[in-house]
Amino acid sequence: IAAEAVVIFAALPLVQRGHVKRGGWVLLATSLIATALISFLYVRIGYVAVAYNLVAGFLFIRYVLPNESRRLAMGFVVIELGISIATEIFNPGWREVSQLMLTISPILTTTLGAAFLVVLVRQAWRGNIRLKLVTAFTIVALISTGILGSVVYIDYRNKVHEDLRQRLLNIISLVAMNQDGDLHSTIRGPEDAKDESHLKILAQNVKYLSTDPNLKYIYTMRKNEQGQIYFVINARQGGEPGDPIGTIYNEPSDLLRTKFDTLSGPVIEEGLYTDVYGSVLASYAPFYRSDGTLEGIIGVDLDAEKILAEERSVLNLILGTTLVTMIIVVLIGLFLGNLFVRPIVNLSSVAQKITEGDLDARAKIETADEVSDLAIAFNKMTSQLQETLQGLEIRVAARTKDLATVAEVGTATATILESKQLLQEVVNLTKERFNLYHSHIYLLDEAGENLVLTAGAGEPGRIMVAEKRSIPLDREQSLVARAARDRKGVTVNDVTQAPDFLPNPLLPETRSELAVPMIIGGRVIGVFDIQSEQIGRFTDADVNVQTTLAAQLAASIQNVRTYEQSKAQAELESLVNTISQKIQRTTSVEDTLQTAVREIGLALGASRVSANIGASIRYDSNEAKNN
After folding, report:
1. Which of 210, 233, 338, 491 has its CA 20 to 30 A from that of 465?
2. CB 279 within 8 A of CB 304
3. What is the rounded CA–CA span in Å between residue 510 and residue 397?
């Protein structure tokens, strides 16, 4: 222990200076060597060493040593565990028996073993399923074999003790009955050691000892005048000389001290009794002279070491069985863990592939249990996910194409500054780019009461525009009017089932229709209407796309209208300025009036313009031309 302490204090500075690997190896090696050596020195320390190295070895391997050293360190720990267990099983004769060690060994072993189990369970529960299964199997096996082993050991121990007590009771009864009290009464002191009576009784008792190798002492006792118990005849196994006659017994047990004067039959100590002569299972019985008076008390002792050796052999057998069972259970746990976990691991790897984007990966169906049901459900989910993503990609591509088409229409019409040309270009491009059956645009009149068809694609559109078709805003049986009133897109994917659809003989193939309002500044200025010959052609995405296009178109119409109004205003101002300059160059009232009438007529495109001043003067543009 002192050497280990020196090494530990020498190794700690290595760890403090950052040499964790070297310091960790020194500390672990010191711990393993010290516990192995102590196992060789004292009985029962081997199991404490096993429990200690399980805890210390795990902590060193888990938290101190680097990853590359853990497997080697684990090997050394296993070797030391084997040494300690083998030492306890074979029990070399040179090992010392320490009562303190015998007392604290079970406590230390149990405490350290429980600590290791707690650490192991906590660590395992953070790991994978395989480790959890192995740990669970090991704990169940440990608890089961521990309970079974404890029951077997306690039952065996009680049975052995009962058998020993009964055997000892029979022996003490036989020995006490055959003691010659009259002959024994002649032995009074140490001077009688060579007396024939002493030698005869001593030889007889040594013969009794030789019948059972577990018997250690047979001795007779009396009390002196001071009430002290002293030995008379002291026979030992093998005929070794005992204490002299009259030797005071200074450490009698409580049973012997209290029952000495009143003992009427054989009795046995409740447990092992230890004194200067060693640890024994002691029994006592009175023996008498021929006249019936009490001559003394005879004691027969069983060697406790041999009793304990038998108990240790059974305990070692149980512990060895437990250890073998543990190893077998761990191996079975590993096998079953791999068997149970492999499908889950495969499923996890497939999930990882899918996470990385490989939607073609599928879990392999390996069993016919709940895991296979999970794999089947997982494959179905993956297929649905793949179909959903593929459909989403198609929809996104279509939406992107539609938005690109909207941008293209907006770009193509951005430079058109004439409203009719703008609207016609929009309906033509929309029909072509969106692959539609027909498209046309209605604009709200100045009174805000009717939607007037302003532009239409193709020949049907030209005809309907020429016919100046219009739809009253309050008309119920009209999809276009409803879109303007509700200020949102209206879709009918089967016009034959729509009560408010207006059939058009120029568009007989129409099967679905979408109408969206054109809104600018919160005011509806018209409706953009598209039609398809397919049933179910339009979706919510189409409504959003066409709403975007309608909003863009409304802004373009507003810009063109603003431009046309600005242009007309500028032309009017220019015309007024020109007429004003020509009038300013005239020199008479007649010339001024004639110039004004002539220029206004030319500007207005009128065939005749006249002006009256007062009641008598009249100027006519025709006369001015003639003049």
Report:
1. 491
2. yes
3. 26
